[in-house]
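[job 0412] stage=fold_complex status=start
inputs:
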Amino acid sequence: MPRTVRNELEPVKWRNGTLQVIDQTLLPLRLRYVRMRTLDQVCNAIRIMKVRGAPLIGVVGAYGLVLASKRIHSKDRDEARRQLRKSADTLIATRPTGVNLRWAVERVYSASSKISSTASLETRLLEEANSILDEELRAAHSIGIFGATLIDEDDTVLTHCNAGALATAGYGTALAVIRAAIEEGKHVSVIATETRPLLQGARLTAFELAKDKVPVKIIVDSAAAQLMARGAIDKVIVGADRILRTGHVTNKIGTLPIAIAAKFYGVPFYVAAPISTMDLETDPSQVIIEERDQREILYFAGKRIGPRSVEALNPAFDITPAELVTGIITDKGVVGQPLEDNLRAKFAVEATNSAR
Ligand code: MRU
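[job 0412] stage=fold_complex status=done
writing structure:
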């Protein structure tokens, strides 16, 4: 029996000139919005991951530039744009791996070239940020519709990190596919990897699916291959922070071993992402993998868990080669193998026309 799984979480909203986001560091115990009025507050929220997930960071970055424009008082258009450029660069540097942030901030910055006087700067930028939010929300629903065709009755889907409503403007990417399949009447259950070190799977994916009454179980990251070996996983669907023209997929650290295990055990491995996650210019060797604070690994719930004399390495993302990816579910349709040729055919024209 079809049912509605419309996720009502609104991870980002603009109200009365302030940006409001769900503070994801408090979930699942507390659902609380933080209000932001300055560029610094937005940059800090992105850095410490009060907001996270590539599409959501893009939307938040877009509004961050609107907030920055409120503090520009110069009547000189070129000077105003110079100050705005500085703010855009500061925003883009907060998290370097996902491409959505750069894409959205550059798009809002470009809108500043269309103003006739600085008096209309904030209004014009806000229009652009609102359009990005609306488009991302629509894209999430389209991803769901395209992706749901790949899901069979009674499938168990493994997902990594959080590619849900909380990582996007709403509805999700990987979780959009699951939501849409359930809305079509299919029975689907989910295995969520806990996603060390910040536990986006255990805290966020499990939270939003449980809220929607979607059956979900949490596993430790290293259990994924064992579950595939015993035939307990029908499909893997993950999100992405940057998809290259070669079909390489950059996503949360731990995605690559899941993809390798999926290939070995013959489990289809799908990536769900909007067009704002496509980067048709960068080579795999040029992707900057964010290295995060060692303390995320060396401490657990505030307690040191590694010897004081030992350091940690904390790359936040990995890159999965195209050959391990069965298909990419986008808001423009599903792209199958060979990924490089099919991505070029589908996105080359749109990328040329985009603000990037
Ligand atoms: O470090 P995070 O939590 O921002 O990483 C998020 C991910 O890797 C997600 O899988 C990705 O952004 C896709 S979200 C739709």
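[job 0412] summary: Residues 352-356 have pLDDT under 50 and may be disordered.
[job 0412] exit 0
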